[in-house]
């Protein structure tokens, strides 16, 4: 990824834990690495294909000058988000906030906080088998798109599928979406749960009926297993209702553990279903 660097932009701001720091202010030095693909801009020599560092510098200056925070960690976090939301071509930013006059009573050059933040690609599976199913799913996707930290990139078609696991329930309508997000996986999970609650989701029967079900299937190439969340989704490779709409969006998406594409996993699931159907038919005839 290409990078535009802004180094030690000097700004007088009012940030710090001490009342004097908030009232009197002090000097801060802000550096930013802006990550994007600059090839097209370099070939065409046209600014619209890049990011104007003059605009970024003035955004940084106005933001640091116009706000007051206790922590330079917060300055860094808020500034990174503001830059990423303001310049759509950016994929990632590194922000360093230096505090040369940190009031610690000892000689030093500066104290600084350095963070990296960027857009992540996630794939979500969506399903509903209660009420107006398609309306639930379209409404949920609309709610996600209203969040400025989420950008919906692609949507699959919605399709009707048989229930999985617990079969004594109505058929589902399922789909998949690709998003870009600034949320961490846990933050994205919280957001999803909020949307599910908006549509009356009740978690009382495992694999049971639901007005809305949204699962994080993949998040970049991340592999994680916590008490709240497993990524990639632990059972995605066995679920045709997940793989089929996902393959419509990105058939070449690779499972970071199995090393197989979504298309390959879908072919395997479909072949296994044919074998199981043939076995069941033979048993009935025996």
TrEMBL record:
Catalytic activity: 6-hydroxymethyl-7,8-dihydropterin + ATP = (7,8-dihydropterin-6-yl)methyl diphosphate + AMP + H(+); 7,8-dihydroneopterin = 6-hydroxymethyl-7,8-dihydropterin + glycolaldehyde
Database matches in Pfam families: FolB, HPPK
Domain annotation 7,8-dihydro-6-hydroxymethylpterin-pyrophosphokinase: ranges: 206-217
Signal peptide positions on this chain: none
Pathway the protein acts in: Cofactor biosynthesis; tetrahydrofolate biosynthesis; 2-amino-4-hydroxy-6-hydroxymethyl-7,8-dihydropteridine diphosphate from 7,8-dihydroneopterin triphosphate: step 4/4; Cofactor biosynthesis; tetrahydrofolate biosynthesis; 2-amino-4-hydroxy-6-hydroxymethyl-7,8-dihydropteridine diphosphate from 7,8-dihydroneopterin triphosphate: step 3/4
CDD domains, alphabetized: DHNA_DHNTPE, HPPK
Keyword annotations: ATP-binding, Folate biosynthesis, Kinase, Lyase, Nucleotide-binding, Transferase
One of the GO BP terms on file: folic acid biosynthetic process
Enzyme Commission designation: 4.1.2.25, 2.7.6.3
One Gene Ontology MF term: 2-amino-4-hydroxy-6-hydroxymethyldihydropteridine diphosphokinase activity
Superkingdom of origin: Bacteria
Protein function: Catalyzes the conversion of 7,8-dihydroneopterin to 6-hydroxymethyl-7,8-dihydropterin.
Family from the record: In the N-terminal section; belongs to the DHNA family. Belongs to the DHNA family.
Protein's name in the database: Bifunctional folate synthesis protein
Organism: Butyrivibrio hungatei
